[in-house]
Amino acid sequence: MTTSRLEAFSDGVFAIAITLLILDIKVPEVHHDLAHALWHQWPNYAAFLISFMVIGIMWVNHHAMLVPVARVDRPLLFLNLGLLLTVVVIPFPTSLFARYVRAGADSHVAAAVYGAVMLTAAIFFNTIWWWISRGPQLVHDHVDHVAARAQLRRFSIGIYVYAATILIAFISAPVALAMHFVIAVYYVVDRLATDSDGAPAAAP
Amino acid sequence: MTTSRLEAFSDGVFAIAITLLILDIKVPEVHHDLAHALWHQWPNYAAFLISFMVIGIMWVNHHAMLVPVARVDRPLLFLNLGLLLTVVVIPFPTSLFARYVRAGADSHVAAAVYGAVMLTAAIFFNTIWWWISRGPQLVHDHVDHVAARAQLRRFSIGIYVYAATILIAFISAPVALAMHFVIAVYYVVDRLATDSDGAPAAAP
Amino acid sequence: MTTSRLEAFSDGVFAIAITLLILDIKVPEVHHDLAHALWHQWPNYAAFLISFMVIGIMWVNHHAMLVPVARVDRPLLFLNLGLLLTVVVIPFPTSLFARYVRAGADSHVAAAVYGAVMLTAAIFFNTIWWWISRGPQLVHDHVDHVAARAQLRRFSIGIYVYAATILIAFISAPVALAMHFVIAVYYVVDRLATDSDGAPAAAP
Amino acid sequence: MTTSRLEAFSDGVFAIAITLLILDIKVPEVHHDLAHALWHQWPNYAAFLISFMVIGIMWVNHHAMLVPVARVDRPLLFLNLGLLLTVVVIPFPTSLFARYVRAGADSHVAAAVYGAVMLTAAIFFNTIWWWISRGPQLVHDHVDHVAARAQLRRFSIGIYVYAATILIAFISAPVALAMHFVIAVYYVVDRLATDSDGAPAAAP
User: Can you tell me the ipTM of this complex?
Assistant: First the structure.
């Protein structure tokens, strides 16, 4: 299998998951002061925006990660399905976070679940890159798989960062939400700066 | 990155967002006179039709805008994600507009939100075209980027028109809705007339 | 514009609309005798099946219709968007039909709306084929556009058949539903028999 | 028709169906102890996971099955639509299973419906492979259709296995659910072991 059908299917899943996020922003039912009711929904907009950025960055990284790949084997296929499972799940913790971020004790649970899903995505990204860069089997001839493997260390930072958001979640859910926003912005800026298409700068 | 995977992902998002619009047209629950109940839902049909036309025109323009593009860099990638964010959002203000267009004071808020989303889309279209046409870096060799840049002025009219719909929204929501319909029809006719594939006639 | 991006976008819309049909089949809420509750939902299964067949056949025909096309102009682009509008709408009358087919007087309205949407699709298919076959502008050099145009007559039968289902709707909604099923089966069998990829046998 | 547009449309349907599965995982409405409420939803997570794996494996197999195919005829087109019908349906029995797996007598009905949908998918996979391998008409010149046909026997095991899950469903729904999980894991491991792209190892 070449990467083209893998990319087409993955693009479809990314595109649908990112679009389904909007289904969680509901039209409020009020009889007066719609503006206030809309404002009151700010956690939904915040969660929507962050998850949109996260899936968007994942899509950009997913593409970058497949650039050096010449051949797709079965383990890569199923690792990719594992990553897509996490992507498909994202609308659920997004909705959960938006609903419970102002809910006292339950806010910690919601924020931790959100962080756990992001952590899972980061682990899958690392595992996929580890599998791709393990030797010359899957990559194009001109790709230096030793150099690619060396990127794993920088790559794995995402795992620690997302693990940290789970800890933060038990201190303050809004702070964890803000942290996810900062991480997403960091990845966008980082990607704009490096502009290297050969490998993902970091996960996700 | 070439334009092909960017287009594939964007097409997916456009196709899903345009199809999700139908989810806002609900089957009415009545015990007699279904015809009247269906008729009573006219704002939903109107909002669906206008948003369908808007997303459809955006898709046509998006394609036209990428025709001269030979290379995709990171800023273009993220500007495009910003535009897709607006496209994904559209089902929400559509639903909001349909629900509140007959709701007195709240109708103004709903209409203004709808206009604001369209304005955001127009701004993203302008920014993307400004980025593409800023020099010879991204376009094919045969493309005259100075001429392309000159189109920005005509292009930017959309920004003023959509800004105007926000002002109109505070006078009359149904008039703003009609205005969005007229703008959409104008763009369809304009595109049919020029039939130039080299650059979008106007945004969105 | 070549047909490839038009096809990709259309395929996306067809795929999403056909998949969204399942959202109308709800899990019944009962405390005993689930089997009976599931059986009681037969109109939903019937409407789902018929609409799935209709969209499936439309997708097959849409492909066949674009085989002779070499160039896509703006009118074709917007006619195609009109057809996609009808495709996107289909889940709504499907749901309406399923909900009201057993509802006495209202069943006629629901059946007529379903037939009207199918009639609209047939009209768009005819108009698109009329536009494609109007001369040598859009078709490949080896295509005989006069012969293609001659197929319009056979092609237009769909318009009369679907108009008839609207009349039948006012006599008996279940009969109209059965008629839509028979038409769909006819088109599948007809397509299997001719197996001609050069042009759609009939619309839709 | 070549396989490319068939694959594109099928990929779209697979991608959407697999993503829609998440819509059945709802945010619980509680005032305290969110963690417990989330835990209480385990049948939804289990059903989601199993159906995700099933659709994922079907997608991998669907690709493998089309590798030897050079030409698509109408019967293959409609057999494929029949398979896609089953794929589109999957979110419904998934939701049904999750809702009723703890519901006493009704759990048997829900589990049997789930098994029946999987059985239907297996039958379509077998029929499609039987049609592809019936002679040299559809396959590439270098493909040995006699050898391909010989794989049908191994291929058909899936039919018996899924038929067995329906019988098990009437003894214990949780056991049937576990059995579906084991089957999915078996197929993943089996695929990883053989890594043969020429033909699907088994259905689905």
Answer: 0.89
Give the C-alpha distances (Å, rounded to integers) separating B140 from A74, B67, B68, B70, D43: 38, 9, 6, 5, 54
Q: B157-169 and B173-194 are packed helices; what angle lies between their axes, rounded to 10 degrees?
A: 160
Beta bridge partners of B139: B69
Residue from D115, D116, D111, D89 nearest D100 by CA: D111
- Name the residue in chain B with its Cα closest to that of C84: B19
Question: CB of D195 within 8 A of CB of D189?
Answer: no
Residue of C2, C5, C16, C34 to mutate when probing chain D, most D C-beta within 10 A: C34
Q: How far apart are CA A169 and CA A165, in angstroms?
A: 6
User: Does D5 contact C27 at a Cβ distance shorter than 8 Å?
Assistant: no
Maximum mean pLDDT: which of A63-67, A113-117, B1-5, C64-68: A113-117
- Domain spans, chain A: 3-194
- Residues of C in Cβ contact (< 8 Å) with B195: 73-74
CA neighbor of B19 nearest in space, from C44, C81, C162, C161? C81
Q: Is C110 on the interface with B (CB under 8 A)?
A: yes
Q: Which tens digit of pLDDT belongs to each residue from C37-60?
A: 999 999 999 999 999 999 999 998
Cβ-contact B44, B25 below 8 angstroms: yes
User: Residue A69: helix, strand or coil by DSSP?
Assistant: strand
Mean pLDDT of D157-181: 94
Average pLDDT of chain D? 88
- Judge whether B151 and B129 are in contact, CB under 8 Å: yes
Distance, CA of D149 to CA of A74 (rounded, Å) = 24
**Do the Cβ atoms of D52 and A23 come within 8 Å?**
no
Burial of B151 (0-12, 13-18, 19+ CB in 10 A): middle
Task: For chain B of 204 residues, list the mean pLDDT of each consecutive stretch of 10.
Answer: 83 95 94 93 94 93 88 90 96 95 92 96 93 86 81 83 95 94 86 53 44
Res. D1: pLDDT tops 70: no
Give the torsion sign (CA, C139, C145, C149, C151). Answer: negative
- Among B70, B86, B63, which Cα is nearest to B132's? B70
Task: Kindly write down the DSSP assignment for every residue of chain D, as one continuous string.
Answer: --HHHHHHHHHHHHHHHHHHGGGGSPPP--SS-HHHHHHHTHHHHHHHHHHHHHHHHHHHHHHHHHTTB----HHHHHHHHHHHHHHHHTHHHHHHHHHHTTSTHHHHHHHHHHHHHHHHHHHHHHHHHHHHTTSSSSB-TT--HHHHHHTHHHHTHHHHHHHHHHHHHTT-HHHHHHHHHHHHHHHHHHHHHH---SS-SS--
End-to-end CA distance of chain D: 24
Mean pLDDT of C59-72: 88
> Are the beta carbons of A14 and B16 separated by less than 8 Å?
no
- Token readout for D160 is 């018996």
DSSP A23-44: GGSPPP--SS-HHHHHHHTHHH
Show the tokens assigned to D144: 């040995």
If phi > 0 it is left, if psi is from -120 to 50 it is alpha, else beta; for residue B29 that is beta
More confident residue, D201 or C7: C7
- pTM of the full structure: 0.91
Instruction: Copy the structure tokens of residue A126.
Output: 């690392």
Q: Which chain C residues touch D23 with a CB distance below 8 Å?
A: 23
CB contact A53 to D (< 8 Å):
no
- Residue partners of B101: CB distance under 8 A and separation at least 6: B43, B47, B107, B110, B111, B173, B174, B177
| Contact call for B27 and C99, based on CB within 8 A | yes
